[in-house]
Write a structure and sequence with these properties.
heterodimer, A: alpha/beta, B: alpha+beta, Heat Shock Protein 90, five-stranded antiparallel β-sheet, 4 helices, Bact_StressResp_Reg (chain A)
Chain lengths: 118, 155
């Protein structure tokens, strides 16, 4: 089955979404991430969406849900690298990614997660 | 009128011919699976690039297409999307018409309201995509189907 790889770095999980995600793939990622947070005792999740040229309501909801689930499992989530055109479209669509921390790039996202010495 | 895909009887909405005066080309694509939605996004992006829509307008149109295609799949039980190249002599545009033979939408005004959903989603699909395009029309008949037509013009 098609999957998006999740990398572990210390107590962080890193995900770079590089494919045009269909809905099932987005759901699989959400499930995989929550499972890995528990299995790897992760404290932070960094999701890089700089390669995504579209975030629609389904992908947006997946991101919000993942962040909420991570929080319940005592891990923080930061979404990094959103393209400006995607941000404009998201807000106009009515999605605000409530409760999701964002950063401009991976480095700033790492800093938000308290990892300045990587 | 091009024949429906898979010999399915298509909801005969007059919206299907909505773009006829300005239409220079039409492609019909099936909407039966998640993968079809991804394929549609790619086709729409190509059309948007071909008429040199700005990156923001490309993104808005592709996002609207993704939302509406999901509606067709989820609420209409699948259907067809017509991808139209438009030109009225002064400007160029991309038109999309989504059509299904699903149960129809009983209360359109309610369905267009943000946050209203019957499918467990966020309820942003219809109302949200209306904000992302220049023209938005919907025709739905209970028991017959739903057709949604959108247009994005090159500014």
């Amino acid at each position: 089955m098609e999957r998006i790889p999740i990398l572990r770095m210390g107590d962080l999980l890193l995900v770079t979404i590089q494919v045009d995600m269909h809905d099932r793939l987005a759901m699989t990622l959400q499930d995989d991430l929550t499972e890995r947070i528990v299995r790897d005792r992760a404290k932070g999740v960094l999701i890089d969406i700089s390669a995504l040229d579209l975030v629609d309501s389904f992908i947006g909801r997946m991101i919000s849900n993942t962040a909420a689930m991570a929080r319940v499992l005592d891990a923080q989530t930061v979404v990094v690298g959103m393209q400006p055109a995607v941000a404009i479209t998201l807000v106009e669509l009515g999605l605000t990614l409530h409760g999701v921390k964002t950063a401009l790039n991976v480095e700033k996202g790492m800093a938000l997660l308290g990892k300045t010495d990587f | 009128m091009s024949a429906a895909l898979n010999n399915a009887v298509v909801f005969e909405s007059e919206l299907l011919e909505r773009h006829r005066p300005d239409r220079t080309e039409r492609t019909a694509l099936p909407l039966r699976s998640d993968e079809d939605v991804v394929a549609l996004r790619k086709h729409v992006r190509e059309r948007a690039v071909a008429i040199a829509l700005s990156l923001v307008d490309q993104t808005k149109l592709v996002t609207a297409a993704s939302e509406l295609a999901r509606n067709t799949l989820k609420y209409g039980g699948g259907g067809t999307v017509y991808l139209d190249a438009l030109g009225d002599g002064f400007r160029k545009g991309v038109g999309l018409i989504f059509v299904d033979n699903g149960p129809g939408i009983p209360d359109l005004e309610l369905a267009l309201r943000d946050g209203y959903t019957t499918g467990g989603g966020l309820g942003l699909g219809l109302g949200g995509s209306r904000r992302l395009v220049d023209e938005f029309d919907i025709d739905s008949r209970p028991g017959e189907g739903t057709a949604v037509s959108v247009v994005k013009w090159k500014r």
